[in-house]
Design goal:
Blueprint (H helix, E strand, L loop, with lengths): L1 E7 L1 H5 L3 H11 L2 E8 L3 H7 L9 H10 L2 E8 L2 H9 L12 H5 L8 E3 L3 H11 L13
Antiparallel strand pairs: 1-3, 1-4, 2-3
The chain binds adenosine-3',5'-cyclic-monophosphate.
Length: about 140
């Protein structure tokens, strides 16, 4: 069983797509174990996007992600990292396969609606930036 960090970015929140995005992961059969509606501080942004510090898109990326609320989540399930990225689609909406979230709703790389961890290592790191261990609610599915 794997876990991943997913975050509806400010553009997804402002466009009213939180429900639509959550619905896609629910219908896939993945399990929500944590969620938080919050502002990303500059400190959190710097930790989350550490690998992009120094790149030309980093300053506008931080401005964007800190400007208005995000919806941060942890999901779990078998192969949840790869499955989530398949549902989300490629970073650039032009390359995203039809039927993916980014293909269906995004136009621009800078406003691509949702973040999903790209590896188990990233997932562990990103979950620990946004959530404390007590905020993850593990439960057995009985129905
Ligand atoms: P994400 O993969 O969630 O995290 C890094 C973000 O930086 C990425 O989504 C895009 O929104 C943004 N970004 C802007 N330009 C680029 C680029 N050239 N390559 C990768 N990410 C970019």
């Amino acid at each position: 069983m794997e876990r991943t960090f997913l975050m509806v970015k400010p553009d997804g929140v402002q466009r009213g797509l939180i429900g639509e995005i959550i619905s896609r992961f629910e219908r896939k059969g993945l399990q929500l174990v944590a969620a938080k509606f919050m502002m990303v501080t500059p400190e959190i942004a710097e930790r989350h996007y550490a690998e992009h510090v120094g790149k030309d898109f980093y300053p506008p990326l931080v401005d964007f992600i800190t400007a208005s609320p995000v919806f941060a989540m942890v999901w779990q399930g078998d192969n949840v990292i790869a499955l989530s990225r398949a549902l989300i689609g490629k970073t650039n909406a032009l390359d995203a396969a039809p039927g993916t979230i980014r293909s269906d709703y995004a136009v621009h790389t800078n406003f691509n609606l949702i973040h999903g961890s790209d590896s188990a290592e990233s997932a562990g790191r990103e979950i620990s930036i946004f959530f404390g261990p007590n905020e993850l609610v593990d439960y057995e599915q009985t129905i």
